[in-house]
Every structure is written in structure tokens, then in C-alpha cells.
Amino acid sequence: MLGPGKAELLARIRDTGSISAAGRQMGMSYKRAWMLVEEMNRAFRAPVVTSTRGGAGGGGAEVTEAGEAVLRLYRAVVERAAEAAAVELAELEAMLRPAGAAGA
Amino acid sequence: MLGPGKAELLARIRDTGSISAAGRQMGMSYKRAWMLVEEMNRAFRAPVVTSTRGGAGGGGAEVTEAGEAVLRLYRAVVERAAEAAAVELAELEAMLRPAGAAGA
């Protein structure tokens, strides 16, 4: 339903008021950003983003109240999970090759 | 580095002694299963799976001690995270459309 990519997109839509601007900030095509928004809107009972196309300002997008709640809950999940599993995550990370060496 | 798919593949390799059998159980092509194993072996300092191709038994695969540790830690992370974020996860789930209704 939601992972780090979609959550970041949602936060950036809230900050920019634009799906395409939010996607662009993440190096995403306009089409992909829209697709992800549509996936989220389908997944949740209430839409997380509403948008208007065209118009004086060239259209815009808004994160709904439900979208704000989803974002808040998602961040709480990530934060609590990271705290609770900090020891095991650190052990796992210590087993990883240092970043950048993976392709060696 | 590791998500539910790779962790499950690792567990099934341990259970079956075969990368292709493990992948098949998950509806994965032989090529994809090998690719995922190679990604894991590159990501970690020590290989998580060792394999022999051909031979009397048609080759086989074994999860290494490092692989066992990775699997154990991954499961602990998931378990602790789910416990710690149970309330927020339940709230998020309640906001989702019932399964199967997403395509409606």
C-alpha cells in the first residue's frame, strides 16, 4: 500500500501543491508520479490526493485530511519500528559490505 | 539489501537445498532466483548462499552460517517492528479499502 517512495511523494505533493513538481524533485516522470498517486487513491477508502487539471494556475494537487493521516501514521510506523529493531538492524548493517563496494 | 521476497527465498533455499526449487515454490523463474541470490551475496560481506552446479545430485545450494544469521536478524527486525508499531499499523489498515475492492 505504502512504502518509502510513495510516502515521500505524498509529502512532496503537500509541500509543492503539485504532483508533477513533487515527482520531478524525486527524478520521476510525470506519468509515474500520477500512477503512484492513482495507486494510493485506489488503495485507501478515501483519496489521499485531490487534483485539478488546468485552470488559471495550471492545475494543482492537495493532500487530503486522510492523506495527512496516512502520512502521519506511516512515519510513526517507521519511527517505532526503527527504534524497536535498532539492535538487530545495526547487526544486519554490520554484515553488509560498505556502500559502494557492492559492485566490486 | 533484504526484503520479504529475498528473505523467503533464503529460507526456502535452506529448506530445499536448491535455488531453482526455492524459486519455483515462489513462482519465480530460475534466472530471477539466481539473480536475487547473487544480489544478496554481493550485498553482504560474506556470501549467504553457496552453490555447486551439476555433479551427481544435479548441483545444490546451501545457506551459509552468515546467511542463517541474516535470516534470523531479518525475522527479529520484522517481529519487533510489527509489535512496536502494531497500533499505527492497525489504524493504517483500517484506512485501506477491503482487499479485492481496489480494482473496483
From TrEMBL, chains A, B:
Limits of the HTH lysR-type domain: 8-68
Protein name: LysR family transcriptional regulator
Organism taxonomic ancestry: Bacteria, Pseudomonadati, Pseudomonadota, Alphaproteobacteria, Rhodobacterales
